[in-house]
Structures are given as structure tokens and as C-alpha cells.
Design a protein that fits this description.
CATH architecture of chain A: Orthogonal Bundle
Distance between the termini of chain A: 42 Å
Order of helices and strands of chain A: HEHHEEH
Largest interface: A-B, 34 and 34 residues
CATH superfamily of chain A: Winged helix-like DNA-binding domain superfamily/Winged helix DNA-binding domain
Structural class of chain A: alpha+beta
Strand order of the largest sheet of chain A: 1-3-2
CATH class of chain A: Mainly Alpha
Largest sheet of chain A: 3 strands, antiparallel
Helix content of chain A: 55-70%
Number of strands of chain A: 3
Radius of gyration of chain A: 19 Å
Number of domains of chain A: 1
Oligomer: homodimer
Strand content of chain A: 15-25%
Chain lengths: ~110, ~110
DNA sequence: CCAGCATATACCGATGAACGGCATATCGAA
DNA sequence: TTCGATATGCCGTTCATCGGTATATGCTGG
């Protein structure tokens, strides 16, 4: 699972949202670092729907414009949980090794 | 940065290693989940070298076979640190939202 | 009055990392 | 002698993401 996909699932973990709201949520969540393109978002939404990780919650017409709300499915929640556990574990390993490096000074073994 | 790339940097954070050893380290690190293909590894190594994130540490001839050791550069260590911080933060956000969901039961608002 | 911006969904070509397989080479074990 | 482990390297394919464009409406400013 790539970063944008993970962030889309994270956005929907907060509750049902429509596409455009997901783009804004992800931008806020990442401090403006990740700005999902429309192409990326709707492709990801279609793919995740095909994989059964998200579902269409409801559709609304607001100002004669369609708003399609998506929600995380049960298996989507499981996928997000296992993915974030993986991320957390890998980050922990990397940080542990970096700390060990910093202490021993493995890069420049001058002493 | 994608997962395989991150794992290669994490492997080298433990100290200089040659390509094949990185494959094994990554496999061990991930409990056998990620088995880097030769194509993925050496392409990543070349790319990371081009980006200055890793450097060739030394070359050895063991049993008339070449062994090229790579090490993390200073900028590679910085990149790995910021990347793992990002991973940790995103995992924290996702897990917080999942916990909130579990408690309130946002998926099935039956109650 | 209408040009531009925000909202909102959707399509499409290009890019590039990763995948999977293959080639090459040596050594030890079955 | 064939197979598996070690070890590097190449190459075609796949696929998610990127970036741009199209479509449509409502609001705001010059």
C-alpha cells in the first residue's frame, strides 16, 4: 500500500467523507505536505472500492452537484490497522538503529 | 519513498552491508514478509547512490566473487530519520482514528 | 456582466519504482 | 553432476501516482 492510499483510508477512518473532503482532510493531516490530485484520489477510491476496503455510504445532491460519500468497510478498517502497525514497527526499527549509530558513531569510526 | 527503499536504508543503518546481506537483513527484519528481488535491490542501490543517500564503503573479493559493501551517508541517515518520523506520525493518526471509531462504533450506528 | 475561484467528479497520458524472471559465476553438498 | 546458496546485474512488464484537462455550478470581485 502506497502513501496516498494509506492516507485515503486514514481520512475515511474518521467517518464517511466525500472525495473532495478527503483531499482536504489529507492535506490538513499532513500539514499541507500531501495534496492529493483528483486523478490519484478517484483512482484510489475506485481501486479501494474494488478491493472492498471502502464502500459508498450515500449520495447527496448539493447545489445540483453530486456528492458521493465513502466509508471504511470492516475489512478496510482491518487493513488500515495492520498497515499502520507495520508502519509503526518499521519506524521503530529504523529509529533504534539510527540511535545506535549515533551513539557508537558507526559512520566515522575515528574515536 | 517506497517501502523497499526505506527497508534498504534501514538495513544499512545497522552498518555497512553488501547487497545480498541487505536482502537477508530485510527478510529477517520483516519476519520474512518482504523478500527483496535482485532487480529491486540493485536498482534501489543505484538510485540511492545517485541521490547521495548511500555510498560504496569498500569492495572485497571473497572466493573470487565480488562483494560490494554500501554504507549510509550522512544525508541518507537524515532522510531515514525524517522518513521514519513521518511513518510513525501517520501510524499514530490512523491508530487514533481507529480507536475512536471502535469506541463510538461509527461504522454501525445501531445502538 | 463576466472572469475567476472554489467545489466536485471523472478521464487520460506520462512517469518511475517495484516486480519477476533470467543470466552469469563460484563453491559446497547431495 | 546437479542442485542450492552466494552474489551481482540486466530487462520487460505492471501499476500507482502525477499532472493536466474536461465538465458543471455557484459565489465573489472588478
Amino acid at each position: 500500500m502506497r502513501e496516498p492510499t494509506f492516507l485515503v483510508l486514514t481520512a475515511l477512518a474518521a467517518g464517511p467523507q466525500h472525495g473532495y473532503a478527503v483531499i482536504e482532510d489529507v492535506a490538513t493531516m499532513t500539514g499541507g505536505r500531501v495534496k492529493l490530485r483528483a486523478g490519484t484520489l478517484y483512482a484510489a477510491l475506485d481501486r479501494l472500492r474494488g478491493d472492498g476496503l471502502i464502500e459508498v455510504d450515500r449520495e447527496e445532491i448539493v447545489q445540483s452537484r453530486l456528492r458521493r460519500y465513502y466509508r471504511l468497510s470492516a475489512s478496510g478498517a482491518r487493513a488500515l490497522a495492520s498497515e499502520s502497525a507495520r508502519l509503526r514497527e518499521q519506524a521503530a526499527i529504523a529509529e533504534k538503529r539510527l540511535r545506535a549509530r549515533g551513539v557508537s558513531g558507526a559512520v566515522a569510526p575515528v574515536t
